[in-house]
Amino acid sequence: MSLSPVRVPTARHALRAGLTTVAATAVLGALAGCSAGSAGTASSAPTTPPPSASASAAHSVVLDERARGTTVRVTAGTHLVVRLHSTYWSTPAGSNPQVLDAVGGGTTTAGTCPPGRGCGLSSAQFTALRPGTAHVTARRHSCGEAMRCSPGQERYDVTVTVTR
Q1: What is the pLDDT along the chain (164 residues), one digit of tens a residue?
Q2: Is the Cβ–Cβ distance between 92 and 82 less than 8 Å?
Q3: Could you tell me if 79 and 127 are in contact, meaning their C-beta atoms sit under 8 angstroms apart?
Q4: Bridge partners, residue 157, by sequence
């Protein structure tokens, strides 16, 4: 079987375009790291519902960096999971245990990536107990190896309003 001259350049072009796409994706992921709230890691599909979404009892709501600075409304009984995509974040903590009860301890799991990127998750889980307001906060001082966070990237704060 022989290849026609037209197919060979097309295959080479597709290979070059594929490598360029992979390289561009890696560069964009690294550049978006700190601006998106992570430390050089790119996350896959969104795991966060719209911040204004309401959740009914016995449901789970998952929040990540994209919820920072928003108010989330949930009903009593809702299970709230906060997943911050970097081990540079402190464990997320709630401000009002009468409204938002921490379930178990927080976790930080390391991912597999080159040193200095903070790959992994810092997460915590809460149960919405009764109507009221609480804040879920976390802090970090580094946004990468030897890279301080710029203002606005050091603090994670989400207001959680619990209704009946």
Answers
A1: 444 444 334 444 443 444 333 333 333 333 333 333 433 333 333 333 444 344 444 689 999 999 999 999 999 999 999 999 998 999 999 999 999 999 987 887 777 777 777 888 999 999 999 999 999 999 998 988 778 998 889 999 999 999 99
A2: yes
A3: yes
A4: 137
